[in-house]
Write a structure and sequence with these properties.
The protein is of the alpha+beta class. It folds into 2 domains: about 120 residues, Metal Binding Protein, Guanine Nucleotide Exchange Factor, Chain A, CATH 2.170.150; about 160 residues, Peptide methionine sulphoxide reductase MsrA (Peptide Methionine Sulfoxide Reductase, Chain A), CATH 3.30.1060. Helices cover about 25% and strands about 25% of the residues. A 6-stranded antiparallel sheet has the order 3-4-8-7-6-5, with no helix packed on it. Strand 15, helix 6 and strand 16 form a beta-alpha-beta unit. The radius of gyration is 30 Å and the shape is elongated. Bound molecules: zinc ion (ZN). Zinc ion binds next to loops.
C-alpha cells in the first residue's frame, strides 16, 4: 500500500480528496456525469479497468452511473455508516481507492446502480475499430478515364473496371461494345469511408464526364457509355439524388442531367488489359490526349 504522501504527489487534489479521503465531488460538477465516449473508465489511482461505456447510463443524479462493473473482481464493497446513512461504499479492488457508492435502483438486470465520482475515473477511448471498406460504382463513359481519376483520390483503396446493369452474364468487352448486353462500362471504387466520403467520389464522378450527354461521352456512343450511378445502399442513393438535385438547382449545366441513379447489380470485372489501363499505357494516344488533360483539370 502506498503511503498517503505518495498518493498526494501522484494524484490531483480532487482525485486525492475522492480516492484517498472518501470525498464526494459536487453533483453535476465532474467531467464524466454527462460523458458519452465509447471506451473504458479506469481507476484514476492505479489504472485498473473499472467500468465500461456500454454499462453507463444517465441516472439523473449528476454523477457517472453504471449498472455493472467491468468485472466483478475489479471492485470491492464496504459498509459505510458515515453521514448518518447506511450505504455501501465501492472501492477499487486493486488500490483500495474510494470510487463512490452502490445503490439498488439501477436499470440493469441486477438492479445495481454504481454512483461513481468522476474524479476517481480516467476515461480511455476505445481505439477506433478498423473501418470496413465500402464500394461505389459509377458509369461515366469510357472506364479507362474514370478509373484513372478515382485512382488519384486519397482514401480510395482500389479501383476496378467492369460491366454492370445489363442482362448478359460474364460479358466480354466486345459484347458490351455491341450495345446489346445492356451493360454500362463502370468503375468500381473500393474506399475507406473514414478517409474519403461518398460525396467526394460523386464530385469526381461529375467532373470526369458530361452528365447531360445521353448515352454518349464524346466520341464514345452507345448505352454502354451512359451516365449512371449504381448505389449500394440507401445512404448512397440519397446522397447521389441530393447531389444531382443540387447541381440542377445551381444551374451548372445548360441541359438537364440525364444521369441514372439505380441499384447496383452484379459487377462483372473487365478483361485484364482494361485494368489500370492509364497506368500501364501512359503513352497511348488516348491516354495522352483524353485522360491526362482530364486528370489535370480534376479538383
Ligand atoms: Zn485503483
Amino acid at each position: 500500500m502506498k503511503p498517503n504522501s505518495e498518493w498526494k504527489s501522484c494524484l490531483t487534489p480532487e482525485q486525492y480528496q475522492v480516492l484517498r479521503q472518501q470525498g464526494t465531488e459536487g453533483a453535476f460538477t465532474g467531467k464524466y456525469y454527462n460523458h458519452h465516449g465509447v471506451g473504458i473508465y479506469a481507476c484514476a489511482g492505479c489504472g485498473q479497468e473499472l467500468f465500461r461505456s456500454a454499462e453507463k447510463y444517465d441516472s439523473g443524479t449528476g454523477w457517472p452511473s453504471f449498472w455493472k462493473a467491468a468485472d466483478s473482481s475489479a471492485v470491492k464493497f464496504k459498509k459505510d455508516s458515515s453521514h448518518g446513512m447506511q450505504r455501501t461504499e465501492v472501492l477499487c479492488a486493486r488500490c483500495g481507492g474510494h470510487l463512490g457508492h452502490v445503490f439498488e435502483d439501477g436499470p440493469g438486470p441486477s438492479g445495481m446502480h454504481y454512483c461513481i465520482n468522476s474524479a476517481a475515473l480516467e476515461f480511455e477511448k476505445e481505439p477506433a475499430a478498423k473501418t470496413d471498406l465500402v464500394t461505389a460504382t459509377f458509369g461515366a463513359g469510357c472506364f479507362w478515364c474514370t478509373e484513372a481519376a478515382f485512382n488519384t483520390i486519397p482514401g480510395v483503396q482500389s479501383v476496378q473496371v467492369g460491366y454492370m446493369g445489363g442482362r448478359t452474364a460474364n460479358p466480354t468487352y466486345n459484347e458490351v461494345c455491341s450495345g446489346k448486353t445492356g451493360h454500362a462500362e463502370v468503375t468500381r471504387v473500393t474506399y475507406d469511408p473514414q478517409q474519403v466520403s461518398y460525396g467526394r467520389l460523386l464530385d469526381v464522378f461529375w467532373q470526369v464526364h458530361d452528365p447531360t450527354s445521353l448515352n454518349r461521352q464524346g466520341a464514345d456512343v452507345g448505352t454502354q457509355y451512359r451516365s449512371v450511378i449504381f448505389y449500394n445502399n440507401d445512404e448512397q442513393k440519397k446522397t447521389a439524388e441530393k447531389a444531382k438535385a443540387r447541381l440542377t438547382a445551381e444551374g451548372k449545366y445548360n441541359r438537364p442531367i440525364v444521369t441514372g441513379i439505380v441499384a447496383a447489380s452484379e459487377f462483372y470485372e473487365a478483361e485484364d488489359y482494361h485494368q489500370d489501363y492509364y497506368q500501364n499505357n501512359p503513352d497511348a494516344p488516348y491516354c495522352r490526349m483524353v485522360i491526362a488533360p482530364k486528370l489535370k483539370k480534376l479538383k
